[in-house]
Write a structure and sequence with these properties.
Blueprint: E1 4-6, E2 10-16, H1 21-26, E3 35-41, H2 44-57, E4 61-67, E5 83-89, H3 92-109, E6 112-114, E7 122-128, H4 133-139, E8 147-152, H5 154-167, E9 171-176, E10 185-190, H6 193-212
Antiparallel strand pairs: 1-6, 2-3, 3-5, 4-5, 6-7, 7-8, 8-10, 9-10
Organism: Neobacillus ginsengisoli
Keywords: Bacterial microcompartment
Subcellular location: Bacterial microcompartment
């Protein structure tokens, strides 16, 4: 049994070059933040990872990011997906650079992994070598610290998270108790880059074991 990549798909992107003040107030934009980029995609955790990368590649800040309830299979429309993210910057060029970084992560770097051929049993064990401002704030860690982003279905997530924390010198930085909006669970763990990779490997291995022997306790 092998893991196979399950990639997210970007569904829609729009740039607002100069946001109306009423909208700017809702997102609590800073004085210099006049431009917005709005993006939706089919997998929320990949989206969160991608918008964090935008904060490292451009002069932008994440001002809104949410998962949609029940996931992409129950989306409110064909362009809704599972996630919406909004970044703000001082100019259209900056937010476009941020979107370019988001697209690169979604298309080439971050993905879920499927355990079964139907791709109905999936998990996310992605190592961020250097966090940007968004994930650093979520995890309450220094910007630029390594992070392992570990997500799976409810039972698998809790068992796998325990295995990850025991496998390496890492600390639990954020806990996502199941069910999340998309009925998953997991957490963010931090340590050295090598420790985060070991934790992610242990998470992945433990979930594969559950898939092979779901009731062999």
């Amino acid at each position: 049994m092998e893991f196979r990549p399950v990639k997210a798909e970007i569904l829609a992107v729009r740039i607002i070059p100069n946001a109306d003040q009423a909208l700017a107030d809702q997102f609590q934009l800073k004085f210099h933040q006049r431009s917005l980029a709005i993006i939706t995609c089919t997998i929320d955790d990949v989206g969160y990872t991608a918008i964090d990368e935008a904060t490292k590649r451009a002069d932008v800040e994440v001002v809104y990011a949410r998962s949609f309830y029940a996931g992409a299979s129950h989306a409110s429309g064909p362009l809704s997906g599972e996630f919406i993210g909004i970044i703000a910057g001082p100019s259209p060029d900056e937010v476009i650079s941020g979107v370019d970084a988001i697209r690169n992560v979604i298309e080439n770097e971050a993905y879920f992994e499927a355990i079964n051929p139907e791709e109905t049993h999936t998990m996310y064990a992605h190592v961020v070598a250097r966090t940007g401002s968004y994930l650093s704030k979520l995890a309450n860690i220094d910007e630029g610290a390594p992070l392992a982003y570990l997500i799976a279905p409810p039972l698998e997530a809790m068992y796998g998270l325990d295995a990850a924390l025991k496998a390496a010198d890492v600390q639990l930085a954020a806990f996502y108790g199941p069910p999340s909006e998309t009925n998953f669970g997991g957490g963010l763990v931090t340590g050295t880059q090598s420790a985060c990779r070991s934790a992610a490997d242990a998470f992945r291995k433990s979930i594969l074991d559950i898939a092979r022997n779901p009731i062999a306790y």
